[in-house]
Design a protein that fits this description.
about 350 residues, Glycerol-3-phosphate (1)-acyltransferase, 2 domains, eight-stranded mixed sheet, 12 helices, 8 strands, about 50% helix, about 10% strand
């Protein structure tokens, strides 16, 4: 039953993602092996990052989630059905770190079934266009599983997530799956966890837009924005960053004409769900969560709104008025960009 629920949700969320984003570019899916996989990705957009990885690969995929959200029994049951596994951090208390052994055991059992785990080795999220230093947690999970079964060939697949705009609706995103790294090659002769981490870091920096010099980040980013970079293409963007860092003078590209803004039209048609969302947004303290919560609320709120209004119109005015309403209201959100 849980497996059927997982596949239903994955299909539903995938459709929602196709609606939420104007364009989703997938690159390197052929790099994903059939055996056990750890998807190791940069982390810029809260749980939206995990959804993009889970929905656009063929593995049954689980993802590690901070343990504090598992405290309430009802919440723990719900998120467990969504293939979430708790991971404990130092901020959760030193004593709680021992609970991670259960998490490592759970991951090992999944690897034996050739399933996949998503982990964000930066250890936190942030919307700067750079890769933060990686922790060793992903390597430890792979190593402990290999110790239990040296024949287990776990592949670390780097995943680069690139958003044209981190918070906007009807923006675009690209997902780059890098070349798989065989974890056991770093464990057979000697335990080279640092080498594994460095190899992953090197690959990830090529799969995302990465500004290496953190002290000069704001200055470089300001110059980069003047070039109208395509953040969906990390290779080209990194070439522009490199030229800026080398002090080259690059001519600014001119912006094209702005498209017609249909914001007013969509706002009127969808006033009620948009009003509810804006009330929710006021309570969001961390801006990195805005896109994830916007999607999470919208994927249930808007279908419920359309169904309710459509049912009322059908009851009082007949099926054709209800169909006309749906034909006008649903496409209106595709014109809404904010």
């Amino acid at each position: 039953m849980q497996r059927a629920w997982y596949f239903f949700l994955r299909i539903y969320v995938r459709l929602g993602l196709r609606f939420y984003f104007r364009k989703i570019i997938l690159n390197g899916q052929e790099n994903i092996p059939k055996g056990p996989v750890i998807f190791a990705a940069n982390h810029q957009n809260a749980f939206m990052d995990a959804l993009l990885i889970v929905c656009f690969n063929s593995h049954i995929t689980h993802f590690l989630t901070r343990a504090d959200i598992f405290k309430k029994p009802l919440t723990r049951w719900l998120i467990s059905t969504l293939n979430m596994i708790p991971i404990y951090r130092i901020r959760d208390g030193w004593k709680s770190l021992s609970e991670n052994e259960k998490t490592f055991d759970a991951c090992y059992d999944l690897f034996l079934k050739n399933e996949a785990v998503v982990i964000f080795p930066e250890g936190n999220h942030g919307d700067k266009r750079r890769l933060r230093p990686l922790t060793k947690g992903f390597a430890r999970i792979a190593f402990e599983s290999w110790q239990k079964n040296s024949e287990l060939d776990i592949s670390i697949v780097p995943v680069g997530l690139n958003y044209s705009n981190h918070q906007g609706f009807r923006e675009s995103v690209s997902v780059f799956f890098g070349k798989p790294i065989s974890a056991k090659n770093y464990f057979k002769d000697s335990t080279d966890i640092n080498g594994l981490r460095d190899e992953l870091s090197s690959q990830l920096k090529r799969l995302i837009s990465h500004i290496e010099n953190e002290n000069q980040y704001d200055s470089i980013m300001s110059q980069l924005k003047n070039l109208n970079p395509d953040f969906l293409d990390p290779e080209k963007t990194n070439q522009q960053i490199s030229r800026i860092e080398n002090g080259e003078v690059i001519h600014t590209k001119q912006n094209g004409s702005s498209p017609i803004n249909f914001l007013w039209y969509a706002s009127v048609i969808n006033f009620i769900p948009l009003f509810i969302w804006h009330r929710i947004r006021k309570g969001i303290k961390d801006p990195v969560f805005i896109t994830s919560l916007k999607f999470g609320v919208g994927i249930f709120l808007f279908p419920a709104f359309y169904l309710l209004v459509g049912t009322i119109l059908f009851s009082f005015f007949g099926i054709w008025i209800a169909i006309l309403w749906l034909a006008i209201s649903i496409p209106s959100m595709l014109l809404y960009k904010k």
